[in-house]
């Protein structure tokens, strides 16, 4: 579909609220809590792909038994009350994420949900479309449109100097969502910006006439910009045309945000997060709350969330291991080399991370959605994994995966599903037994939960049906 | 070769050891290497000693490519092409400053996505991608900046000189005719103004003021790809090298030196068609470097080359280093910027970056360095000719802090910085499976240098660490925030060593910096960093394209730089007068 077709296919319904909320308004005014959007309850399956840096200490993640009766592994202990709402999946391989020589974090992060092999270069990028964007494209094809097609959230923007990972462009270390081979989709890391994005276009004070006029103005401005893009494109070579096409895609997305609105489920705008990020745990919690809000308001149905960037050097002074606060950097700790202190610290960090997943899932479970008995969690699919399996070995097989939610009834949560070797708890040093079952197949399953099937993706062959 | 290694890497990875193939770039051939973690030995592959003797011979390898050992093709004819450049964060902010008089940082205030870096710098056009988040951030920023500019008496006159309320559409048109060529950095056709006027009249047709319509038109101008990007056009279906247009050249110059749009004089020279003339070009470079806006080279070129920007994020352990506070952080940054500026903009030889017998301190920093204080918080130039502790950037507290861990020094990081940034010699990261967690001896029975001798005893480590560690050991007289010390705990610091590539001996950092400064790889490396930054792309190696002019051009620039007393201005002038800066080619069909 070319951009003109896409533009014509966009519906231009009136807002319940207004156009661009910040236009002509004092900045702070947009933060005043307001009443709910009009209710339009309808069950909708949502997708979340959540990325964790530096791998997982697998000995404390991989359950002892296959099936429903496993003992909850230590780092997942906070998830015990939600046992029937997720599955642990082990033994899947993400072979395309194996880098050319060094660079496992960059290649593993960029390959996270693209299952595509990154071009190793610090000055050129070439990867492939990610699962979340395939979902968006498929959902649009199926007539499911939200005002924000997908939301990319994260914690770290990125450093301002120095290399990122072993000769791989920083784009690979910072982005898991990719619209196509050369278009990474950067993430919002500021909670207030995310809040404003979710509620952009909502202005309870605007009259219908005001809204119509503002939309006409926005439309006219963007039409002119699109006209400029067209004139310039005609004069450019193919590489520059591709870059300008990225820009056009962005302008079209803005047009969708400013001039259309999807039906809103019942949701309260609530209070805007503080303008200043206080500390890491509060930052993470803010972002998790905003995800639930975005789903609840049906501003979007597809989110990716990065708990850092590749090779994250986050410190965890608020956690203790062996009686001491964890002041060393995560990446450094993850190269544990079998050291007991490092492993204890990794377990503490991993445990805290899955506590956040538990917080999110609990919150989603508490929000009823659609038919009676359903809730946001039953109608969601949450894929949680990392760039590597063991942070020390940097292996891309036996990936640590938690698959949360019921996927609108498509998934079979409440079990440990293991692929390949039956070895349930090998030592981290043990040579892994490759299952040859790609992570991409599980990602095809996640696409199935939002009704997207029959797509080509990474090294995927067919959706997994056991999970 | 690459293909074979890739296959090996895959096989090795699933065999739990990636050690061997990751060693390409360092010296040692490793047979049956075993790691400190006790994983099984890898296959007996021999690594390629690409970096061996690099520093000795004055050559270097890697992305910087200075003095690439491949023979430059003097007959190369391909000037290459730079992918259409998107304004990066700093450039967007500076351009708005010079266009609208904006004094804020829109990229920060509106949370533009972080720029990716390629070839060391965040102005590498190939990785300056755009996304929906960029566009929505631009939209939010644009709307706000336009409103602020028109509401401010001082800013407004730069955008609209006539009376919109009284003169209506006539004034709007006049204002756009003056503003749009500046915003789009080129001549603008009257049909382009016509289109913008239709946006103005949409507002008036709906009962709003001309002012409201004019704001909408400005929004179009600043969201237009003509503003956000720097297009450079090629003749259709041709791959023949051709000169940039005058306006394209003006933008290349201004974004290189100022990280911003051309000023009135550059526009005037472009309009007159004289900018390509060598004398005009040289005069412009001299003028531009003398302009305060050239501080952009300090912030954006040196800030990334010398890692100064990383000071903002440095987090030394507050318990171990109570002296490190926000005023010291800020003083470190200022010192680094002032020293670079003094050497680069005052015609000093560039090796004085490493050997300067002066620096700039305020009282806070003077106290930290053990220099006399004057009771002033202002920065002043101080003489270091009698100092045995401080000389040049490598002894700056800031640089030493950035290249350390939070709780201890890192001879590895410091050595790697010298190799990568000053000598353009790549060092690959440690292979996975190696236990890189080396903690200082808590009992104090061993110095860090002694602890790190584990690197020498392991073949898989020593291949690269034998290059980095000796340099870093020479810097051990400075703790993790750069405080001078002769003792590490109760043990004396040993800062003696021998440069592995040349066999030259040194005792301490001041001697070491002299050796680095006289290494011909240093000016060649600096030239290659400036070259990449100026063009906004990485150097094309002969192996990628034997007909590409980069290697020969850079070699010529570097030798002129070395031959002319290492003056930064000459380096800049050499880059902007090179055929790869002045010309480009199309992609053909």
Task: Give a quick rundown of the structure.
The complex is a heterodimer of chains A (467) and B (589). With 467 residues, chain A is α/β, with parallel strands linked by helices.
Description:
The complex is a heterodimer of chains A (467) and B (589). By secondary structure, chain A is of the alpha/beta class. Chain A has eleven helices and eleven strands. Chain A has helices spanning 3-9, 104-110, 131-141, 170-174, 191-199, 208-233, 238-259, 280-296, 330-334, 340-365, 439-448; strands spanning 46-52, 86-90, 151-154, 178-180, 183-184, 302-306, 316-321, 324-326, 380-386, 401-404, 416-418. Chain A has a seven-stranded mixed β-sheet with strand order 3-6-1-9-10-2-11, with helices on both faces. Chain A is globular. The two termini of chain A are 33 Å apart. Chain B has 589 residues and is mainly alpha-helical. Chain B has helices at residues 2-14, 54-57, 89-100, 106-109, 132-151, 153-159, 164-167, 169-184, 190-205, 210-223, 225-228, 246-257, 264-272, 278-290, 295-305, 326-345, 352-355, 363-369, 397-402, 411-422, 448-451, 454-457, 459-473, 509-517, 521-535, 550-563, 568-576, 579-582; strands at residues 85-86, 229-230, 242-243, 358-361, 380-383, 487-488, 491-492, 496-498, 505-507, 583-584. In chain B, the strands form five sheets. A two-stranded antiparallel ribbon of chain B has the order 1-2. Chain B has a two-stranded antiparallel ribbon with strand order 3-10. In chain B, helix 26 runs antiparallel to helix 27. The longest helix of chain B is centred in the N-terminal third of the chain and has 20 residues, at 132-151. Chains A and B meet through helix 4, strand 5, helix 6 and helix 7 of A and helix 1, helix 5, helix 9, helix 10 and helix 11 of B.
